[in-house]
Amino acid sequence: MTTINPIIPGFAPDPSVTRIGDTFFLVNSTFHLFPGLPIYASKDLVNWTLIGNAINRQSQLSLHLSDTKLEPQEDGTVMLATGGLFAPTIRHDPQSGKTYIINTNVLHPENAGDKPENFIIETDDIWSDNWSDPVYFDFDGIDPSISWDDDGKSYICGSHGPGPMTTISLFEADLSTGKKLSEEKTVWKGTGGIYPEGPHIYKKDGLYYLLISEGGTFKDHMITVARSDNILGPYEAYENNPILTAAGTENYVHCTGHCDMFQDNEGHWWGVCLGMRMRGSRFHMGRESFLVTGHWEQGDWPRLDTVEVNSSHKFKNDIVKATKTGLDWLYIRDANLQHHKIEGSTIRLTASKADISQWKEPVSFVGKRQRKLEGTASVTLTLPKTGSSRAGLVIYKDEHRYTRIYYDSGNKAVCFEVVNNAKKIGRRDQEKISDESPDVRLLIEYTDDKLTFQYEEEEGVTKTLGVVDTAELSNADFVGPVIGVFAVSDDENNEAVFTDFEHEN
Predict the structure, then answer these.
(1) Which domains are present in the chain?
(2) Which controlled-vocabulary keywords does the entry list (predicted)?
(3) What average pLDDT does this structure show over 212-231?
(4) What is the pTM (predicted TM-score) of this model?
(5) Which position among 197, 220, 399, 472 bears the catalytic label?
């Protein structure tokens, strides 16, 4: 079996894997986007198919308080910390036949600190895309994970308390009710790196191994491990920690961490981790899912190989397929889905009064993850003959960072805009076009280096309106680029009609 990375390209952080029979299932974080927690399936760990989303009904939970905070760092940069659905863990229980996902919805109440809402969802058939409503449990932390002991007892471990010096806590729980069946116990504080988080417990050769992430989720990210002869500890740290990191290297794939380990049918060990393709100050794609080979001899400690990919690597698996049309569409937070109609190649958006530059009100936007470093996206917008509106094509990360090309009916102009509040970037340009035209074709060409925004008022005549260096949208953050269409208007029931949306995702 050959590792071809990233296995899930684009916006795919915090991977977790479980195996059911001969099929592997992977889940990722989604933060402020709906539907949440995508589920991918693979039989060979190379080719992955999107089979559903565990949070696929707005009635399951609300993402309203998942705004993005600007957090200045000591080095003068600004981290963008988005709320919503943090690192999930997926586990299958062969005894009950149920598959569980345990997760945190991080709320950002106004004028208050983070409020984590931890929950468990389950399904009897992972292929059905039918997941339960959340069962909430009391835990003041994030990144929960599930373990079962030999006696059938189920345990939850997670990263407890506010950062940066969090601790790893463990308690017995009833997964059907969320009720704690034991006192919460601190079982490890890590090796001294900041933000000990993302814990997973594995039992092997009669010992319990606790795998965690430390050092923060960026350039100092690392994986460390400890073990004990009792699930409740005490845990002894491995003397050769960390077992995975790109810190202090010039690797193209950096920030590797937040790992989950698993075995294939032949007994080989693997790890899935997040990583970022970084070239200088450019890492526009954000955190993606990578596969690493593992080694775990009897009685020994687990080891993980380095993610070895260079900037000239030809990626075989750039496109992730879906089992049915529509699974890969994404909306922002608690969108009004009645205002989004997708019929074949036509998208109709009832324009929202609120723009994507804010988070408090729903916005009319639908898009798909950018999966490839190089490609194009385009759409044809029917020009409105009445009212005042703005509608077009956008690369969106959060309310602080986006770049777009759109038609402003009030000015009868095609406009280009790039915004990154964390870097104090804000540019805009426009060109008048004839309001006699029936439509305008909007285009984005993207590479590792730059984003080029173009339009065609008449077929075959392409004009460039704006160019963005991808470094301008690269930040320490949690999310990745989503390419889609949006519509904004002060007028009630103003509709934007898009046709032939094309995006190589």
Answers:
(1) 19-238 (2.115.10.20), 329-503 (2.60.120.200)
(2) Glycosidase, Hydrolase
(3) 96
(4) 0.96
(5) 197
